[in-house]
Amino acid sequence: MEPVNIRNVRLTDDFWLPIIERVQEKTIDYAINKIDEEGRLENFLIAGGAMEGEVRGAMPFDDTDVYKIIEGASYSLISSPNTQLSRVLDSLINIIETGQEEDGYLTTWRTINPANPPAEWVEVDEGKRWESLYMSHELYNAGHLYEAAAAHYEATGKRAFLDIALKNADLMVKTFGDGADKISAVPGHQIIETGLIKLYNVTGKREYLDLAKYFLDNRGNPENHKLFGEYSQDHIPVIDQEEVVGHAVRAVYMYAAMTDIAAIENDSSYLKAVNKLWNNMVTKKMYVTGGIGAKHENEAFGENYELPNLTAYNETCAAIGDVYWNHRLHSLKGDVKYFDIIERSLYNGLISGLSLDGKKFFYPNALESDGKYEFNQGACTRKDWFDCSCCPTNLIRFLPSMQGLIYSKSNNAIYVNLYASNKAKIGLNYHDVEIAQQTSYPWSGEVELSVNPEIPSNFNLKLRVPGWLRNEVLPGDLYRYVDELRLKPELSVNGKITDINIDNGYINLQRDWKKGDTVTIKFPMEVRRIIANQKVSEDQGKVALEYGPIVYAFEEIDNKEHFKNLEVGVDTKFHLEKEKDFLRGVNVLNFREFTGIPYYAWSNRGVGKMKVWLPLKN
After folding, report:
1. Which of 2, 63, 109, 368 is 20 to 30 Å from 577 at the Cα level?
2. What SS3 state is found at 311?
3. Contacts of 10 (CB under 8 A, 6+ apart)
4. Number of H helices, E strands in the chain
5. Separation of first and last alpha carbons in the chain
């Protein structure tokens, strides 16, 4: 199975298109101005001798902010060509090339002054390359370079950025591995692995794939290097890891690369390991918003069932990395459960990282606020930037490629994984099939699809039944709905009610298709009460509320007189109302004197208290 490329999917959606347009029109330009102000671009010019000066910025991975902006902007060019933006990217790439050393090396702080890293926690001894891979981020920088260069090449066909990346990757192949003339080591912060695999997919050069696997194979190998420990998932070999531990972003990037290797190499040991890690994360360490990483300390996963609300970390980057990982797992195995995770993250704990104006950001995403605890890197609400600006630029690189999640295909099947208005052209069995979706999802559950094959043909159209409709909050027993959904979905083909055949979470429509065929599916929605496993101590006696895929939050600003008395009764009746001019258009949830809004939209109106989990009154 493979995803349908974003260049073949054009969004027309009232929910996702405005978000992506804000990234294109506001966030990208805003971020470019920020990285310019803070010296990210000057570092490349200083490294290349085009300017004089010392390293600017506070992080050894500041280079990656430039790469990630280019990656996201490149994806945006696929769906929305923009000559001016394309010229800006060409300029940024020229600046990057200036900072690259002759042999391909590219980490600006090390080139400018190798004995003086921008962060004190990067250890230096002789000031040489690669001497502090645990924290130098030299290989992390390379990974984001490769990811961005592959995206830019796909979007534009231009080779300038790709050639920079390949020159650097060839240096990596020459430098790392087994042998007297090579360095035995692994990266501290993973992502070079997926980057190398993307370059392998672009070029077919086997050495890139082999180096990615070398880095993975030697994690947890004390004969290869001094181990970095659980923080970097470098405590035991990756194929022996069964519990998600340590820095959550590093972890999911590594798991994504392991899944790539499992798919490309048909490696059963890697597949067995990622299955165990996924099960541990989803059944014991995931928030109801799809967020991961409970602890501010080390930006890490907690113990099993350790899921605090006020102090939840849930880094935006971790949510993005988790979507990347689950998308790979779905392509490998085709199981609907991976898109249950993707959908829950997308509509809740991922887009919460970006403000509604596109210019403020959450680094962590808490599930409760007292209006005093400065959980967001020194703030109680979103900030306009961070010294460590990985999350803003990660949102930029991810959101413009969101439409690449909507469809997948196999030899004789088209998978509709997400519901969003769009027009797509999907190559299937030597002919094209045009599909158009019309829907108001997630605010309503009605979806209309027109199916127009190039020639009449028989294939399977598989429509995903969302987990919330299958009465499954997440796979496993970490959360459950108090009551099962009473209503069932309705399906019609060409206006005729049709029996629903569900297999592995997908409605199967295997038939002879012709131009002009239509499919209508109605997913019934109602407010659902969610309770947590008894082992999640902080959520006992409480419920979270959900409508469709949207988790709701309750802010003090909407409940000024009654916030301290927020509670849900067993027989509480709920009312939903679409307010088009409120928070850019949302379904507002009301019961008694209380008002809730979608979790992703909280904290767009200043600092204040907020709760996701409400006391349950019997």
Report:
1. 368
2. coil
3. 79, 403, 422, 423, 424
4. 15, 24
5. 47
Rounded distance between C-alpha atoms, residue 335 and residue 326, angstroms = 10
Task: Please give the C-alpha separations between residue 324 and each of 21, 290, 321, 341, 402, in angstroms, as whole numbers.
Answer: 21, 13, 5, 11, 11
Q: Give how far the C-alpha of residue 166 lies from the chain's centroid of Cα atoms, to the nearest Å.
A: 25
pLDDT 10s digits, 158-199? 999 999 999 999 999 999 999 889 999 999 999 999 999 999
Task: Name the 3-class secondary structure at 551.
Answer: strand
Cβ–Cβ < 8 Å for 556, 475: no
Rounded Cα gap, residues 464 and 377, in angstroms: 38
Q: Backbone phi, then psi, for 52, in 5-degree steps?
A: -105, 150
Q: What percent of the chain has pLDDT over 70?
A: 100
Closest to 401 measured CA to CA, from 173, 77, 125: 77
State residue 79's pLDDT score.
84
Can you spell out the DSSP letters for 355-423?
Answer: -TTSS-B-SS--SEEESS--TTTS-SS-BS--SS-HHHHHHHHHGGGGGGGSEEEETTEEEE-S---EE
Q: What's the pLDDT at 430?
A: 82
208's enclosing H/E stretch is helix 206-217
Q: How far apart are CA 88 and CA 76, in angstroms?
A: 13
Residues 6+ apart with CB under 8 A from 357: 22, 26, 604
The answer to whether the beta carbons of residues 6 and 401 sit under 8 Å apart is: yes
Q: What per-residue confidence (pLDDT) applies to 294?
A: 98
Tokens 């009154």 -> residue: 617
Which residue stretches of the chain have pLDDT < 70?
A: none
Helical segments of 232-285, H only: 248-265, 268-284
Looking at residue 117, its pLDDT comes to 92
Separation of CA 382 from chain center: 19
pLDDT in tens, 107-133: 999 999 998 899 999 988 888 899 999
Residue 564 belongs to what H/E stretch? none
What is the model's pLDDT at position 589?
Answer: 98
Tokens of 491: 């399906």
Residues pairing with 433 in the sheet? 426, 453
- The single-letter DSSP state of residue 569 is E
Residue whose C-alpha is closest to residue 234's, from 211, 218, 253: 218
Beta strands in 107-231 (DSSP E): none
pLDDT at 570: 85
For residues 354 and 27, the answer to whether their CB atoms sit within 8 Å is yes
Nearest to 385 by CA among 9, 44, 65, 56: 65
Dig out the tokens for 439 from the structure. Answer: 């829907």
325 vs 233: CA distance, rounded Å: 16
The predicted pLDDT at position 127 comes to: 83
Q: Show the CA angle centred on residue 324, arms to residues 320 and 327, nearest 5°.
A: 135
What does the pLDDT read at residue 102?
Answer: 98
Task: Name the amino acid, one letter, at 317.
Answer: C
